[in-house]
Automatic annotation (TrEMBL):
Domain annotation Alanyl-transfer RNA synthetases family profile: ranges: 29-773
Listed GO biological process terms: alanyl-tRNA aminoacylation
Organism: Dreissena polymorpha (Zebra mussel)
Cofactor descriptive note: Binds 1 zinc ion per subunit.
Domain-related comment: Consists of three domains; the N-terminal catalytic domain, the editing domain and the C-terminal C-Ala domain. The editing domain removes incorrectly charged amino acids, while the C-Ala domain, along with tRNA(Ala), serves as a bridge to cooperatively bring together the editing and aminoacylation centers thus stimulating deacylation of misacylated tRNAs.
Keywords attached to this entry: Aminoacyl-tRNA synthetase, ATP-binding, Ligase, Metal-binding, Nucleotide-binding, Protein biosynthesis, RNA-binding, tRNA-binding, Zinc
An MF annotation (GO) of this entry: tRNA binding
Protein name: Alanine--tRNA ligase
Reactions catalysed according to its record: tRNA(Ala) + L-alanine + ATP = L-alanyl-tRNA(Ala) + AMP + diphosphate
Catalytic activity, EC: 6.1.1.7
Positions bound to Zn(2+): H619, H623, C730, H734
Top EC class of this enzyme: ligase
Length: 966
């Protein structure tokens, strides 16, 4: 038995620990105390470091799902990718309570939430970790001690599972863990073996993994329910999972031992509170009762009864659970800066909010405003552990109230769509893919989101195939296969470690002299081929990875694109197209353009200066844009991502309010003023300890980013007033002064009112060219407006105006322009276009009338067929009424959405007009839409010009004889 475990079990030590922890809590079963007791136990009594919960918004490298487990923020440690100088790399023992959301992905609890007593979209995971410190003995001893002596659970109500082994992977049973539990006093009939599905944890298809031991609680307290473990029975539930990461999975069949073993444990707070508060329902605890009481008070609904299924009359308790759970989830997401929107995680937040509102309005029949009123009790129960909820309480309430207004509007439009659909298809029972697409794309009215289709369909008794919904919501994978370039993998990192490849010094990437990044001399530490294998030599035409002792290349990071360029040796040349870094190694990837490259060779590192300068200027501009947005829109602006390329930058952010055109103009003007100002604004880089940097005034940094212990702080400072315009943690490359940017402009602003918005900017020469193009287009627009301002009754130079109109529209459609200029030009061109169309139509009608009068008077033509394209149909009616009809006439008019035939016959014609029209209708499959004294109109939807002309020509041949003409 280990020394630590012996000390833990020593009566005197146990008594001291219990006095320190339990004495502080009068109501130890309440959720706040349960959470605090867990943290105090590990941090104060067992030397763990408290690390606050990460955001529920995942890191950019973690895919498109929410943070759904406590271990997410520690993945770099498990994967060996944590920067060596970062605080993360120094962790040995850690504990916390992590905010988790499970909506979508492998762990998707949404469909079950509300309909049972245990599932949630948001929950808290109490977790403890050891990173290469203690292992199985200590982890099991600490867990048992906490459950029995701190939380006071009965030992005979606990069951302990362990991994029974797997013959396919040649993995032996984890008998060590079973023996640890036995030595800790657990009876043999409470220690149970299970297989890979239940007791072997894996991060993914490859990577760290290992056996786990789960602790299950018997709600029956009978002590003889081993047969119910892992059966899904609500009588015996898992409350704690202890994962022992001791392997690295290289493939589906190959596992190798990790150089150091880790412990990852997780225990759901909601389940633990239910156990400690004597209930089998996670909802029948103090985590939810404040929310339920607020709902009861606001609505007059019966008190929450914790019922399910047929016992839940009218689905009231189900509605209670859905609304409470979804409000908690929405509040946590909004507090972390994730707002409801159209795509990605934002769309999932919207779906959850809409699902809750659907319960409010169409199941519980509650008046508007309830969800916003539930924010206060949510903050009451969670705000102490997660202060961001208290800080953003008003913002959360505002977002939910706005979301409710939007939902009610879209719901009414959606009902109208379904009414039209059912009118056309009264016997439909299931919405197939075609009908879902038609509803989504607006065939029956306003376009609908797929999740709103799903919600409303249920009200009309229609079923929806969830697989179809899922497929429509999933972006299709690209058909283009990536080229095989070397990249950092676990196997390559292991090989690099074994061969002791020295670190890369990349500090020279910041050297910038006379607006250039000078070439440097270095040596090749190693070469990596297309199979991620270390090699000594590579030949021409081969994809290669090059690691050097020194580099001046910038590796892709922080949204900034990697440098491109050339690595030259005496025997060959590599065209570098990408650069990646991990730990302190920098991998340059590209193609050997000529000759051969060898490990150990001296090389010259040459970066593409134009590419680098563009990235530098645009990265500095990204910081300016962030500062300008916060200055104009307020501190609510939360950065969600950025892309810094040599030719442009894009900046994604969320904020509650919509950006108006006036605000865009102010932001653009502010940016231009900073860049083109008469005095100098410098860009300063300073290295500082992370703790010191985070205390700097106005500092901006990103959540869920692992920063090293010493960070780079980039500030934009007024050289005269010393005012700091922008200050961010950033390792990117930047201009030295704002004057170097030369010019800046916003070219695009997109996004939802409460979702993620995106702003695109240009700097330098591209921005100058954009403003020049806008000036050219503006001058042309001025000329067009002047040409159209003629005295009434005087002719205009129509051909000149049409040419100007065409050229300006060509610029608007093909050139990148500043957004404020482009919007203003579009508005002016719309007005000019309306006036121009009037002149064009007037001239066209005058020409048509002149042509028809001439053809009516022409004795050689006995039957007239004419074509005309027009947008103003009433003028055609006036023209037809003025005409002196002396011959059969079919005037074919193509309008915006349909094709019309104006058919007229001389009054004295022996062929009745109605018979003539009927024959034409049959030929073109059209219908009579208008009948006048001297003409009839036949119409068909869409462009039917060819069909109409063919039918008119047939009638012209048949009836173009003298007897039908006066």
């Amino acid at each position: 038995m280990s020394l630590l475990r012996q000390k833990l079990l020593e009566p005197r030590i146990k008594k001291i620990i219990l006095q320190k922890i339990v004495k502080r809590y009068k109501h130890e079963c309440q959720s706040k105390a349960v959470r605090s007791m867990f943290i105090d136990y590990f941090c104060n009594s067992h030397g763990h470091k408290f690390v606050k919960s990460s955001s529920v918004i995942p890191d950019a490298n973690d895919g498109t799902y929410f943070s759904n487990a406590g271990m997410n923020q520690f993945k770099p440690i498990f994967l060996g990718t944590a920067p060596i100088t970062s605080e993360l790399a120094g962790y040995q023992r850690v504990a916390n309570s992590q905010k988790c959301v499970r909506v979508g992905g492998k762990h998707n609890d949404l469909d079950d939430v509300g309909y049972d007593l245990t599932h949630h979209t948001f929950f808290e995971m109490l977790g403890s970790w050891s990173f290469g410190d203690y292992f199985k003995d200590e982890a099991c001893a600490m867990a048992l001690h906490l459950l029995l002596d701190v939380y006071k659970l009965r030992k005979d109500c606990l069951y302990f599972s362990y991994f029974k082994g797997d013959t396919d992977l040649a993995l032996k049973p984890d008998l060590q863990t079973a023996e640890i539990w036995r030595q800790l006093g657990i009876p043999a009939d409470h220690i149970l073996p299970f297989g890979m599905r239940d007791n072997f944890w894996e991060m993914g298809e490859t990577g760290p993994c290992g056996p786990c031991t789960e602790i299950h609680y018997d709600h029956t307290m009978a002590g003889n329910c081993a047969h119910l473990v892992n059966t899904g029975s609500p009588c015996v539930i898992e409350i704690w999972n202890l994962v022992f990461m001791q392997f690295n999975r290289l493939s589906s069949t190959q596992l190798v031992p990790l150089p150091s073993c880790h412990v990852d444990t997780g225990m759901g707070l909601e389940r633990l509170c239910a156990v400690l508060q004597g209930t089998r329902s996670n909802y029948n605890t103090d985590l939810f009762w404040p929310i339920f009481n607020a709902m009861h008070k606001e609505t007059g609904l019966p008190q929450y009864g914790d019922k399910t299924g047929t016992d839940d009359t009218g689905g009231v308790d189900t509605g209670y659970r859905i609304l409470a759970d979804h409000t908690r989830m929405a509040a946590v997401c909004i507090a972390d800066g994730l707002l409801p929107g159209r795509q990605g995680l934002e769309s999932r937040v919207r779906f959850v909010i809409d699902r809750a509102l659907h319960q409010c309005h169409h199941v519980l029949n509650i008046r508007p405003g309830l969800m916003g009123k539930l924010v206060q009790p949510v903050v009451e129960t969670l705000g102490e552990a997660y202060p961001e909820l208290s800080l953003h309480e008003n913002k959360i309430r505002d977002v939910l109230c706005e979301a409710e207004e939007r939902y009610l509007e879209l719901y009414e439009d959606g009902k109208y769509n379904f009414t039209k659909l059912l009118r056309k298809m009264p016997d439909i029972k299931t919405l197939d893919e075609e009908q879902i697409l038609r509803l989504r794309d607006g065939w029956y009215g306003r376009p609908m989101s797929t999740h709103l289709i799903e919600l409303i369909a249920g009200q009309y008794g229609l079923s929806v195939d969830r697989d179809i919904i899922h497929s429509l919501n999933t972006q299709p994978a690209s058909d283009i296969e990536d080229e095989e370039f070397p990249c950092f993998t676990a196997e390559l990192l292991n090989d690099l470690s074994i061969t002791k490849v020295p670190p890369t010094d990349d500090s020279l990437k910041y050297v910038y002299i006379d607006k250039k990044c000078p070439d440097i001399e270095s040596s090749i530490s190693c070469l990596v081929d297309e199979n991620n294998t270390l090699v000594d030599t590579v030949k021409s035409g081969v994809h290669v990875g090059v690691i050097t002792r020194l580099t001046n290349f910038y590796a892709e990071k922080g949204g900034q694109a990697a440098d491109v360029g050339v690595i030259r040796s005496k025997t060959g040349r590599v065209r570098v197209t990408d650069v990646q870094s991990i730990h302190d190694l920098v991998l340059h990837t590209g193609v050997v353009e000529e000759g051969t490259m060898e490990t150990g060779q001296m090389v010259t590192m040459e970066i593409d200066q134009t590419h680098r300068q563009g990235c530098m200027y645009n990265h500095t501009a990204t910081h300016l844009l962030n500062a300008a947005l916060r200055h104009i829109l307020g501190p609510d602006v939360s950065q969600r991502g950025s892309s810094v390329l040599p030719d442009k930058l894009s900046f994604e952010f969320s904020c509650v309010s919509k950006i108006t055109a006036a605000e865009v103009k102010v932001i653009d003007t502010l940016l231009s003023g900073w860049v083109r100002g008469s005095h100098c604004l410098s860009v300063e880089r300073k290295l500082a300890p992370l703790a010191e940097a985070l205390q700097m005034e106005g500092i901006i940094y990103l959540d869920n980013v692992v920063y090293p212990e010493v960070v780079s702080v980039v500030s934009v400072v007024d050289d005269i007033s010393k005012e700091c315009i922008s200050r961010e943690l950033c390792g990117g490359t930047h201009a030295h002064t704002l004057a170097e940017l030369g010019e800046i402009c916003i070219t695009s602003v997109t996004g939802q009112a409460t979702g993620v918005k995106s702003v695109v900017c240009l700097t330098g020469l591209p921005a100058v060219q954009a403003r020049k193009q806008a000036a050219v287009a503006t001058e042309m627009c001025n000329g067009l407006e002047m040409a159209l301002k003629v005295q009434q009754g005087q002719p205009i130079d129509l051909e000149h105006c049409l040419q100007l109109h065409k050229e300006v529209n060509h610029i608007l459609g093909t050139e990148v322009l500043p957004k404020t200029d482009k919007d203003a030009l579009k508005e002016r061109m719309d007005k000019a276009g309306t006036i121009l169309n009037t002149h064009v139509n007037n001239e066209a009608f005058a020409n048509l009338e002149e042509e028809l009068d001439r053809r009516m008077a022409n004795g050689e033509e006995s039957f007239i067929v004419a074509q005309f394209e027009v947008k103003v149909l009433p003028k055609v009616n006036k023209l037809m009424k003025r005409l002196d009809i002396r011959k059969p006439l079919i005037l074919l008019v193509k309008a915006t959405n349909n094709t019309n035939a104006y058919i007229a016959m001389p009054k004295s014609s022996p062929l009745p007009l109605n018979d003539f029209v009927g024959e034409f209708c049959t030929d073109v499959q059209g219908k009579v839409t208008q009948q006048e004294t001297n003409y009839t109109v036949v119409s068909a939807r869409g462009d039917q010009s060819e069909r109409f002309l063919k039918a008119a020509n047939v009638l012209q041949l048949r009836y173009g004889r003298k007897e039908f003409v006066i």
